[in-house]
């Protein structure tokens, strides 16, 4: 009886090994197709999304905490040579760099809300302190009517 049990056990184990790849292949069929790169964003175009405020430590200023603002948007491609910022679909988070206290105060009132900005200069994030995938260094807020 033990020989029959061992044979059946070996048969069941073989069937499990053969059925495993077929089951995983069926599961892969339901996976969404790979994402396409986002539409391009060039200087002069509008970027819309939710504005978030982040607190980061400024390494150049003795670790002082500074407010950093970020727009979360749909994926966008940047103009060459930046392209997709080493991402599959392009950046989705864009750090807004205020040009002064007036722009910083302006952004502070819109935290948590949907905003639109006209992009004048944008590049992929490259510094270790940057919390976003891309950085908008020159921009202007578009007033909603």
Features of the shown structure:
145 residues; five-stranded mixed beta barrel; 25% helix; alpha/beta; 2 helices
How would you portray this structure in words?
- This protein has 145 residues and is of the alpha/beta class.
- It is built from 2 helices and 7 strands.
- Strands 2-3-5-7-6 form a 5-stranded mixed β-barrel. Strands 1-4 form a two-stranded parallel ribbon.
- The chain is globular, with a radius of gyration of 25 Å.
Question: Can you describe this structure in just a few lines?
Answer:
This protein has 145 residues and is α/β, with parallel strands linked by helices. Helix content is 25%, strand content 34%. The protein has a five-stranded mixed beta barrel with strand order 2-3-5-7-6. Strands 1-4 form a two-stranded parallel sheet.
Mean pLDDT: 77
Overall number of strands? 7
Instruction: Write down the overall geometry.
Output: globular
First CA to last CA: what distance? 85 Å
Oligomer: single chain
Radius of gyration: 25 Å
The SSE string, one letter per element, is HEEEEEHEE
Main β-sheet description: 5 strands, mixed, barrel
Q: Order of strands across the widest beta sheet?
A: 2-3-5-7-6
